[in-house]
Specification:
There is one protein chain. By secondary structure, the chain is α/β, with parallel strands linked by helices. It folds into 3 domains: 180 residues, Nucleotidyltransferase, domain 5 (2-Layer Sandwich), CATH 3.30.420.40; 58 residues, no CATH class; 176 residues, Nucleotidyltransferase, domain 5 (2-Layer Sandwich). Helix content is 39%, strand content 18%. It is built from 18 helices and 12 strands. The strands form 2 sheets. Strands 1, 2, 3, 4, 5, 6 and 12 form a 7-stranded mixed β-sheet that branches. A hairpin with a 2-residue loop joins strand 7 and strand 8. Helix 2 runs parallel beside helix 6.
């Protein structure tokens, strides 16, 4: 059972922070300049400036390729890490310029970095019978897990306890004379790049980055992390709320009325815009990146056999905590289930992908949330909040909920995640935990990120 999180009562004055975020769409960097006032455990947020800096087309293509399992080298990853550090630092400078704030006035910069690999554990895999799925999960680390190894790991259950026995097993597995026990990679692992030391040098302010790894180190999945900020900024004394972010992956934060930190839970529900964006890029040969307002999908018809097959995938039935990324729903997923599907037009496939997002969100709430918590309001953010057709489908599927956008709470839908990492960095600077064990599955709450100060 997760121990309650004890928050301090320290009071703090106004401070400026920048949050930097690039999600699974890998199309660029969101930068938010915010003023934070009040105690770190009860912050008040005001957005001063927000920009999105697009990646060059070739950089997005290469990042998508690496995240999708294309081969790379340590040299290339090192160079990309430095290059992205420069780009993230430049984005921080530019948002300060937009907000007419000198960078040296910043209290902290919080950088999520660019995820190029995220693995929540073998229990998060797609169809159990598919070796291709297992390979797609592990190819980012150049380690393959075969069906037999996966079955053996699953039989042990999704336990991530680190104890003396496990450490002995690891040492034995790594002996030069033994074949490594590849089932060890069933543990969660995650990799974000954009070197924080470079960001600190460019911006001239303290930088907190690499947020996910501290949670992974204590047995969590490293994601989602925004639920802590959802709790701080969106909790209410009278109504239960669900914060839904529809980025490349869709995730929910469940905040009961009068919630304490340990009452909050959340998880990834499955693909958000990831599949639909990939289909749009494929159909338009890269000329368009997304289905604006869902107009293209609205013209199609659902391919019911395909949708039924997808809804039976184990990930959607798996109980939280769970997290996902391109390893589950990236290029291999689109290729296998959509592009090889004969007899369906592009608009029908896009309509089916949009319906998959809507249905897996509503099904997740019906299955894992409503039996536990009375919910009144659904607060939507992320790029998917612009898809009017998708929002209408959510209203149709969840008529009992009052659907609003995060804009109504001072958190613009496009800026919310960047704002969140400014807030998480502020918590780190105040020595406060940034993860919620009830969300990530971690053994305990921990201070997140690595702090780099400019020289």
């Amino acid at each position: 059972m997760t121990k309650p999180i004890t928050l301090t009562t320290e009071k703090a004055g106004k401070r400026l922070a920048v949050g930097l975020m690039s999600g699974t769409s890998m199309d660029g960097i969101d930068a938010a300049l915010v003023r934070i006032s009040g105690a770190a455990e009860k912050p008040r947020i005001k957005l001063l400036a927000f920009i999105t800096v697009r990646y060059p087309w070739w950089l997005q293509k290469r990042l998508l390729g690496i995240a999708g399992g294309e081969s790379t080298t340590a040299a290339e990853l090192s160079r990309l890490n430095t290059l992205l550090g420069e780009l993230f630092g430049d984005a921080a400078v530019r948002v300060c310029q937009r907000g007419r704030v000198a960078p040296n006035r910043l209290f902290v910069v919080g950088s999520h970095g660019q995820t190029i690999f995220h693995f929540g554990g073998l229990q998060s895999l797609g169809p159990r019978e598919s070796q291709e799925s297992a390979q797609a999960q592990q190819v980012g680390s150049e380690v393959m897990v075969g069906p037999g190894e996966r079955q053996a790991a699953s039989a042990k259950g999704p336990s991530f306890d680190v104890d003396a026995t496990r450490l002995t097993e690891l040492k034995d597995a790594l002996k030069d004379t033994a074949i490594p026990d590849l089932a060890y990679v069933a543990r969660p692992s995650t990799l974000q790049i954009a070197e924080e030391a470079v960001i600190a040098e460019v911006i001239g302010a303290p930088v907190v980055a690499d947020f996910r790894t501290a949670d992974v180190a204590v047995g969590g999945q490293g994601a989602p992390l925004v639920p802590m900020v959802d709790y701080l900024l969106l909790r209410d004394g009278r109504e239960g709320r669900v914060a839904l972010n529809i980025g490349g992956i869709a995730n929910v934060t469940v905040i009961p009325a009068r919630a304490r930190p340990e009452d909050v839970f959340g998880f990834d529900t499955g693909p958000g815009n990831m599949v639909t964006d990939a289909l749009v890029r494929h159909v338009t040969r890269g000329k368009k990146r997304y289905d604006a307002s869902g107009r293209f999908a609205a013209r199609g018809a659902v391919v019911e056999p395909l949708l039924s097959e997808l809804l039976r995938l184990p990930f959607f039935r798996q109980r939280p905590p769970k997290s996902a990324g391109r390893e589950q729903f990236g290029a291999w997923f689109v290729e296998k289930y959509f592009l090889r599907h004969s007899g369906a037009g592009s608009s029908d496939l896009l309509r089916t992908a949009t319906e998959l997002t809507a249905r897996t969100i509503s099904d997740a709430l019906e299955r894992f949330v409503f039996p536990r918590v009375k919910i009144h309001r659904l607060i939507v953010s992320g790029g998917g909040a612009h898809n009017r057709f998708l929002l209408q489908r959510l209203k149709d599927l969840l008529p009992q909920l009052f659907l609003t956008l995060s804009d109504d709470f001072g958190l613009p839908v496009d800026a919310k995640e960047a704002i969140a990492f400014a807030v998480l960095a502020d918590r780190t600077m105040h020595g406060l935990p940034g993860n919620l064990p009830s969300v990530t599955g971690a053994h305990r709450a921990v201070i997140l990120g690595k702090l780099v100060r400019p020289r």
